[in-house]
Amino acid sequence: MLSEEEVHSNSYAGRTGAVMDQSDLFSDDCDEINLGNEDTPPSKLRLHTSTDTEHSSPAVINSIEDHDQYIDNHINDHYAQISPLPQPTHFKVIIREFEKRGDGMNAYIVYKLETEVSGVVGYSKQQYETWRRFSDFLGLHGKIVEKYLAKGIVIPQPPEKSISALTKTKANSDPAMSREVGIQRARQLERYISRLIQHPRMRNDCDVRDFLTIESDLPKAVQTAALSSFGVKKIFKNFQVVFSKMAFHMEEGDRWFEQVQSQIDELDEALRKLYAVTETLVASRRDMATSGEQMGKALSMLAACEESTSLSRALSALTDVTENVSSAWGKQAEIDNAKFSESIYEYIMLISALKDVFGERVRAWQQWQDAQQTLARKRDQKTKIDLAAGGRNEKSDQLKAEIEETVLKMDQLEQHFGELSKAIRDEVARFDSDRKHDMKKMLIEYMESMIHTHTEMLQLWEKFEPQAHNIQV
């Protein structure tokens, strides 16, 4: 995604780089050190042979080349001969079934999650089956955001609650309407949980593990009632970020982050335009399917009243072809919506999550700068008091203790900013790699479906051709 253009170090990269390799002060409560956990420091997992990796890996990442070298050196781990090779892992979650429970305003849909897992620490069985309602997914998302967003982890977005889905589920007694909501949401929830377990940090998370393995109902998520308070909180949080940027603007000194954010904005704009076009395409094909059905009915009526036997027979055959073509367009519209349009929208939401991570970095920088200003202000106060009193006094001693505490806090915030910046670099690299793979898969599936649909239509029209030639004039 990035060019090989040489970039220069930022004004604070040199200072934050010195603390990048220190221990994480904001570690997870649920993380465990074990042989299969990818989050466990390598020094606690295996013996390393003596290599030049430690010398070749850049201590401070100030350029795109340094970032690529850092990624290569950390992906290619070197194991000692006595250490076992990592076991291959398999982790897949499928939602095949769903059902509506309750009546009226108490109605809701539950989804059956079928989990296949092997080689992942914390999972004692290879298969699990659990039933979860939509609010359970939102509750899990809230926990994940609380734990990982401040660490620079890109967290996929679950589908949001909507008035349309709420009405079709609770206020409508037609099973077809509830089924329509269930099918679409099942696809979206499967994408969300699959994207979640792809991340090496979250596949071993205790909340994710409980969500996929505990067969009993989970405690009700109190913050997901009505139309998702998470969306309201996010809007309020965005306002806070805007006001914060206006009050304390961050001059980006790292050209790598500046370039990446610019590319992300361009990608976001392009995907949104593509999503709008795909929505129009799906709607047009559905209209073609509806129009084909209406045309088939009209041709059928015309064939019934036609006196010429050969022409009536041809019109009847044309009716069948038209209805079959209409059915093919309807199927293609559903495929386009499920595998093309929804996939594009998923990446729009992922980009939104990536922007949230960049916002966390800005917030961490602002907290660091605020601590620096507080430290300078307290030092000025102490100097004035010392000069006015002619020496140290009780107020001066109190300010000295506050200064020491502020210095410690500032160092912690500086370390957090450095660790967050490094984590975001890793997340951007992982996002870029996944995006290329997903886009390739999506486009191939789309082209294959189009080829299959047009091949089917061609066969239908070729079958009708002899009937048209047999019309006697």
UniProtKB/TrEMBL annotation:
<keyword id="KW-0597">Phosphoprotein</keyword>
<keyword id="KW-0472">Membrane</keyword>
<keyword id="KW-0963">Cytoplasm</keyword>
<dbReference type="InterPro" id="IPR015404">
    <property type="entry name" value="Vps5_C"/>
</dbReference>
<dbReference type="GO" id="GO:0035091">
    <property type="term" value="F:phosphatidylinositol binding"/>
</dbReference>
<dbReference type="GO" id="GO:0098796">
    <property type="term" value="C:membrane protein complex"/>
</dbReference>
<protein>
    <recommendedName>
        <fullName>PX domain-containing protein</fullName>
    </recommendedName>
</protein>
<dbReference type="Pfam" id="PF00787">
    <property type="entry name" value="PX"/>
</dbReference>
<keyword id="KW-0813">Transport</keyword>
<dbReference type="InterPro" id="IPR027267">
    <property type="entry name" value="AH/BAR_dom_sf"/>
</dbReference>
<dbReference type="GO" id="GO:0005794">
    <property type="term" value="C:Golgi apparatus"/>
</dbReference>
<keyword id="KW-0333">Golgi apparatus</keyword>
<dbReference type="GO" id="GO:0034498">
    <property type="term" value="P:early endosome to Golgi transport"/>
</dbReference>
<dbReference type="Pfam" id="PF09325">
    <property type="entry name" value="Vps5"/>
</dbReference>
<feature type="domain" description="PX">
    <location>
        <begin position="89"/>
        <end position="219"/>
    </location>
</feature>
<keyword id="KW-0653">Protein transport</keyword>
<dbReference type="GO" id="GO:0010008">
    <property type="term" value="C:endosome membrane"/>
</dbReference>
<dbReference type="GO" id="GO:0015031">
    <property type="term" value="P:protein transport"/>
</dbReference>
<dbReference type="GO" id="GO:0005829">
    <property type="term" value="C:cytosol"/>
</dbReference>
<dbReference type="InterPro" id="IPR001683">
    <property type="entry name" value="PX_dom"/>
</dbReference>
<feature type="region of interest" description="Disordered">
    <location>
        <begin position="29"/>
        <end position="56"/>
    </location>
</feature>
<dbReference type="InterPro" id="IPR036871">
    <property type="entry name" value="PX_dom_sf"/>
</dbReference>
<comment type="similarity">
    <text>Belongs to the sorting nexin family.</text>
</comment>
